Amino acid sequence: MNVPISHESDGEELDLPGRRLSWVVGEGRIPAKNCSACVIRIAPGERVRPAHSHPNGEEVVYIIQGRGRVLISGEVRPVREGSVILFPQGAVHMLHNTGDEEMKAVCFFSPATNLENYQMHEDVDFPD
């Protein structure tokens, strides 16, 4: 039996606005049928840009390092290591690293998705 195991460093890390992203499930990695996942790294002071939504599914984010804040459908909340966040289907969202160390998170999607399925919202940002 071929056991599907991968390591986050095994794949290509994409340099996207405000974050580095590496797919760990889907996108040529572990071939799950019903979900996908990526690891993101956000440098201190950076925001995941642009705000975006997932019109075809939901996302759960688990913060494994760092702290900051999250914007979901106009509401801002603090997050820190150990926080688990649900981005409901269609909800516009973004993360902001307000700490002095890198923020690292695992993002789980159901059903499986990729960057082509993100809907971008260039006009949305955190309130001042």
Would you mind describing this structure in some detail?
- The protein has 128 residues and is mostly beta strands.
- Helices cover 0% and strands 47% of the residues.
- It has no helices and 11 strands.
- The chain has strands spanning 14-16, 19-25, 36-42, 51-53, 58-65, 67-72, 75-80, 84-87, 93-97, 103-110, 119-121.
- The chain has a 6-stranded antiparallel β-sheet with strand order 1-2-3-10-5-8, with no helix packed on it. A 3-stranded antiparallel β-sheet has the order 7-6-9, with no helix packed on it.
- The radius of gyration is 14 Å and the shape is globular.
Features:
128 residues; mainly beta; six-stranded antiparallel β-sheet; three-stranded antiparallel β-sheet
Q: What percentage of residues falls in helices of 4 or more residues?
A: under 10%
Number of alpha- plus pi-helical segments: 0
Evaluate the radius of gyration. Answer: 14 Å
Largest sheet: 6 strands, antiparallel
Uncertain ranges: none
Tell me the overall shape: globular
Distance linking N and C termini: 53 Å
Instruction: Give me the side-by-side strand order of the main sheet.
Output: 1-2-3-10-5-8
Number of strands: 11
The helix/strand series, from N terminus to C terminus, equals EEEEEEEEEEE
Return the average pLDDT rounded to an integer.
95
Strand content: over 45%
Task: Give me the secondary-structure category.
Answer: mainly beta
